[in-house]
Amino acid sequence: MKIGLLGTGKLGSTLGKIWAEKGHIIMFGSRDPQKAKKLANSIGFDASGGTYEEVAKFGDVIILAVPWSGAKESIKMAGDLVGKIIVDSTTTAAPHLGGPLKAHAPSAAAKVAKWAVGAKVIKAVHTIGVESLNKLQFGSQQASLFICGDYLDAKSKVKQLGLDLGFDVIDAGSLTNARLIEPLAMLWIELAYKQGMGTDIAFKLLRRRKAK
User: In whole angstroms, what is the distance from residue 212 CA to residue 102 CA?
Assistant: First the structure.
């Protein structure tokens, strides 16, 4: 797949590197195109870099991998996104140690869908630390990736990308359900930072298999 990543931070660069190693074609986007090109060169695998608009035109799937504070502007800079698959990996919560974490309504994904007119928005990759993306096997268990969205074709592609990362992918239904899975990011932050569990933790959905 041709994957465009909006953002060159830890999340975007880590996802891009893993997917490039899996044979996907990667393009990084940044407000500073030279920064994106430098990152692409460091990764290899014929990855490239450019502007947000260039990335939007390039990708079959676009990953929104920027801080929530920059999400709306990044989407605006990307230009025409009609028909594009956008994976919203943002979280409205930040890992601050002081003060309570607060849920937001409507969901971040709903806002992204409103800003990215005509795009197929899928919520995913927002409930795990970047440090764990290269090691999603916890003993005999794989970390779960919850995804939701309204388009089956888009979810199918995002599911494959999740499998390529090494997740056990769980379809959590329509994009409306982003309001249910986004708070998992706040729980992750609470456990990792405030409860001192560290960032190498993940969620797992356990299913009891029926006896034959």
Answer: 44
**Looking at residue 136, which CATH number applies to its domain?**
3.40.50.720
Give 91 or 156, the one with higher predicted confidence.
Answer: 156
Q: Which two tokens stand for residue 123?
A: 């919520």
What are residue 123's DSSP bridge partners? 88, 148
Between CA 30 and CA 180 the distance in angstroms is 30
Q: Whole-angstrom Cα distance, residue 31 to residue 7? A: 8
Assess contact for 7 and 66: CB atoms under 8 A: yes
Domain that holds residue 182: 2-194
Domains: count for the chain:
1
pLDDT computed for residue 49 by the predictor: 98
- Residue 95, pLDDT score: 52
Which residues have a Cβ under 8 Å from the Cβ of 190 and sit 6 or more positions away? 101
Distance CA 184, CA 113 (A): 20
* Over residues 185-190, mean pLDDT: 92
Q: Are 172 and 181 in contact (CB under 8 A)?
A: yes
Mean pLDDT for all residues in the chain: 93
| pLDDT tens column, 107-144 | 999 999 999 999 999 999 999 999 999 999 999 999 99
